[in-house]
TrEMBL record, chain A:
Protein name: DUF1574 domain-containing protein
Organism: Niastella populi
Taxonomic lineage from the root: Bacteria, Pseudomonadati, Bacteroidota, Chitinophagia, Chitinophagales
TrEMBL record, chain B:
GO molecular function: acyltransferase activity
Acyltransferase among keywords: yes
Cellular component GO terms, alphabetical: plasma membrane
Organism listed in the record: Niastella populi
Name under which the protein is recorded: Acyltransferase
Family: Belongs to the membrane-bound acyltransferase family.
Principal location listed in the UniProt entry: membrane
Entry annotated with the keyword Phosphoprotein: no
Annotated GO biological process: alginic acid biosynthetic process
Topology term for the membrane: Multi-pass membrane protein
Length: 314, 485
């Protein structure tokens, strides 16, 4: 019996060490490698989740890169910003999407629920530090354990793939084209949405903490940083926590400038749904944003007033 | 609690350690521990149905004793039919109620009569087909005077609910398992190591082969209208590997786990895809179910004795019942009928026992003739699996029609093969799997003897490589297919 147990544990230890070594070295190669360069003319980058991913058609905006990713919360965005800033010293300005749902308690699920963990975490495993891992272990150790093989596969597929940019080699990063046009039908169901789906559930302290870390990172790298809210339909249920949203903005991010495009004039047909733009809306908004940048909006002392004035012209 | 879950990885070592700690105490304690562990294992699926399992166990335990003690043949028959009736009644209600209600309503509607039977949202208790068949074989054997009833309830309850075989077999016989439960078990190092090897190979089959093939097979079968004949053919082949690796992988883990507890279960698979004809395939596929139907249905019906008509009738009955056992859907019945059609010519020409020995025994390679026969048997099997996997008979027929169309010669659509792993990597591991299975085809399971004569370092490196394969290629976790039966 002892012989069996000792041999079995020896086997377990050997395989665990082998797997740990493979994970460690593949993560290390990615983390230390130069796989995060943006286009040479990129000076402005936007990060965030699906809202900016659908809103900014970066082919229409000069020197601008959309690095947003659907379903991504600040917890993961932090590592993306870190690697991009470390490897692209010419970046002058970073825009961080700050939407109403980013403060919502449900963002915790975007960090560690099985679904989002499987979708996001493997791509960011090479960059997670001890403190970040502790958060995941505390909240979903099983999920974290079970995705290690996906993480190794993700690393290996990057080594064998043709795409040299690590983040671009992963799923659907950047501008998302959408030809959906569901705002009309969704408005009809709005009472249901407001009462059931978008109920206020509290604040995600962890997600907000990682937004603070992103802002600190930008400051440390001497990069200008702005919080930005992309156009959203006035009937969207996500706006229900607007008071809390404004309160957090004014209390915890009062030193960071906030560019609000919530009221950017768009027809229902230019929304994919109540939170996301379709390609028509994205084109209109991106052209407008490009114009603002050409008019040097970032040099204005009262940027929001300037933006509001320009939006009225639209 | 899936065999390939973290929960089971925690559960098994705890039960194993406690079990062997009790080795020198009392056999009763060991069996009580096995019973508690088995009920805990079953309750982790759905504790509501634990009562059904306990009820079924009590029913067969008491009717077995009552039958044996009955002085009058009438009373013996009463207790026998009571047990059979209640067992089949439960099985019929949980598994077939909606099927019969729907089918009856549909046939009446063909006659122009509108009938609206209640269809209930009946949840199928996990493993009901398996433990009901355990109980049935026990009761039938007592009735036929083959065995005496078990007086020790704990021993009998362990026989019915021993956790490795509880939810998907193998379907055990009292004559084989009860004596092992009743006799003292000593820890056997060789047996345990053999069990661990079988678990390792079972996990490889399930996690690497079955779960990855399932991703492609599910995608192709679920969207078969969008794909060409060539893609559908590949989808059917992937399903053939999925179902074999899934079920035989489960059986390997079950047998391996049982060996850790010093118990040998009935063998369930014997490399069926290396069969040279359908009769050989059925001697090698789901052996515990096939032999159950042979002993408790086919032989009582007269078997292959009697005239041609009798043989044809009995063959169709056993294959249709076998198909129906798998689930309440016409697809399973068609699958059974198709296999009966494959089997019948061999039976009528008296060739059903032609290939009793292992293919290419003592040789590395099969002859050209053997290879052709293996390939043709596999092709027939793949064709039949289409019925098994399809949503309904119409879906299966349209799937087959498309395979036999000109689009069979077009390039398969790449979009069908999006999964956790690259398709070429999966094809490579399937080839590796076939080679290992071929190398071990003369043994109980593929890894039973493979590498035993190699130097220790090489052997352990080989096991480590398989472990690494399991880790790396683990596809999206899929339920074991046979849990739904």
């Amino acid at each position: 019996m002892r012989k069996l147990i000792s041999k079995f544990f020896l086997f377990l230890i050997a395989i665990t060490l082998l797997i740990a070594a493979l994970l460690y070295f593949s993560n290390r190669i990615i983390n230390d490698g130069n796989y995060f360069s943006l286009k040479s003319n990129s000076k402005y980058v936007v990060f965030g989740h699906s809202h900016p991913a659908y809103a900014f058609n970066d082919s229409l905006i000069e020197n601008f890169v959309n690095y947003a990713q659907q379903g991504e919360c600040y917890f993961y965005t932090y590592f993306k910003v870190k690697k991009i800033l470390e490897n692209n010293k010419r970046i002058e300005t970073v825009f961080i999407d700050f939407s109403n749902n980013q403060i919502d308690k449900r963002m915790d699920d975007w960090i560690w629920s099985d679904r989002f963990l499987d979708e996001n975490c493997p791509d960011y495993m090479p960059f997670l530090g001890f403190e970040d891992l502790k958060i995941l272990i505390r909240n979903n150790w099983r999920g974290l354990l079970e995705l290690q093989n996906i993480s190794l596969r993700s690393n290996v597929s990057f080594f064998y793939g043709n795409e040299m940019n690590y983040f671009k080699s992963k799923n659907a990063i950047g501008y998302l084209y959408s030809d959906r046009q569901k705002a009309d039908s969704l408005i009809k169901t709005i009472p249901v949405q407001k009462s059931n789906i978008k109920a206020d559930t509290g604040i995600s302290e962890i997600n907000i903490h990682y937004l603070e870390k992103i802002l600190d990172l930008c400051t440390a790298n001497k990069v200008k940083v702005y919080l930005i809210r992309t156009p959203i339909h006035s009937r969207s249920g996500e706006l229900l926590n607007e008071d809390k949203f404004q309160q957090i903005l004014s209390s915890r991010f009062k030193t960071i400038e906030f560019l609000d495009f919530k009221r950017f004039p768009l027809a229902d047909a230019e929304f994919g749904d109540l939170e996301h733009l379709n390609y028509k809306g994205a084109e209109k908004f991106s052209l407008f944003f490009n114009l603002l940048m050409k008019e040097n909006v970032l040099a204005q002392s009262e940027k929001q007033k300037f933006i509001d004035k320009e939006m009225v012209k639209e | 609690m899936l065999f390939n879950s973290i929960n089971f990885a925690i559960f098994l070592p705890i039960v194993f350690a406690l079990y062997w700690l009790l080795q020198n105490k009392n056999l009763l304690y060991q069996n009580i521990l096995l019973l508690i562990a088995s009920y805990f294992f079953y309750a982790s699926w759905d504790c509501r149905f634990l009562f059904l399992l306990i009820f079924s166990t009590l029913l067969d335990y008491f009717t077995g004793i009552k039958m044996y003690e009955a002085r009058k043949p009438g009373m013996k028959a009463f207790w026998f039919w009571l047990s059979i009736g209640i067992n089949l009644g439960f099985l019929g209600f949980f598994k077939y109620y909606n099927f019969f209600a729907d089918s009856f309503a549909e046939s009446l509607s063909l006659l122009g009569i509108k009938a609206n039977f209640w269809t209930l949202k009946v949840i199928l208790p996990v493993g009901i087909s398996f433990y009901t068949f355990h109980g049935l074989s026990y009761v039938i054997d007592i009735y036929k005077g083959r065995i005496k009833p078990e007086r020790n309830f704990i021993d009998y309850a362990v026989f019915v609910s021993f956790f490795p075989l509880l939810v998907a077999g193998p379907i055990e016989r009292a004559t084989h398992l009860l004596p092992q439960i009743k006799s003292g078990r000593k820890f056997d190092y060789t047996k345990s190591v053999d069990g661990l090897r079988q678990i390792l190979w079972g996990l490889f089959k399930k996690v690497v082969i079955a779960d990855n093939c399932a991703e492609y097979a599910n995608n192709i079968f679920n969207h078969s209208l969008n794909y060409s004949g060539s893609t559908l053919l590949i989808g059917a082949i992937f399903f053939a590997f999925q179902i074999y690796a899934d079920f035989s992988g489960y059986s390997d883990i079950a047998l391996g786990v049982a060996r850790l507890f010093g118990i040998d279960l009935l063998r369930n698979f014997s490399f069926p895809y290396f069969s040279r004809d359908i009769a050989e395939f059925w001697r090698r596929w789901h052996i515990s179910l096939t032999t159950w139907f042979r002993d408790y249905l086919y032989i009582p019906l007269g078997g292959s004795r009697g005239g041609t008509w009798m043989k044809v009738r009995n063959t169709f009955i056993i294959f249709i019942v076998s198909g129906f056992w798998h689930g309440a859907n016409w697809t399973f019945i068609f699958w059974g009928v198709l296999n009966a059609i494959y089997f019948l010519p061999l039976l009528l020409l008296n060739r059903n026992r032609n290939n009793l020995e292992i293919v290419a025994q003592g040789r590395y390679f099969p002859t050209g003739n053997e290879l052709i026969r293996i390939a043709s048997t596999f092709s027939l099997t793949v064709l039949a699996w289409i019925f098994f996997r399809a949503e309904n008979v119409g879906h299966a027929l349209s799937y087959i029609r498309k395979i036999f169309s000109l689009s069979l010669f077009s390039k398969p659509e790449g979009v069908a093969f999006i999964g956790s792993n690259q398709p070429c990597a999966i094809v490579s591991v399937v080839i590796f799997f076939i080679l290992i299975e071929w190398a071990g085809r003369e043994r109980q399971f593929a890894l039973a003897h493979l590498g035993l004569k190699w130097p220790g370092v090489l052997r352990y490196s080989f096991y480590l490589a398989i472990g690494l394969f399991i880790f790396y290629f683990a596809g999206s976790k899929q339920q074991f297919i046979y849990f739904q039966f």
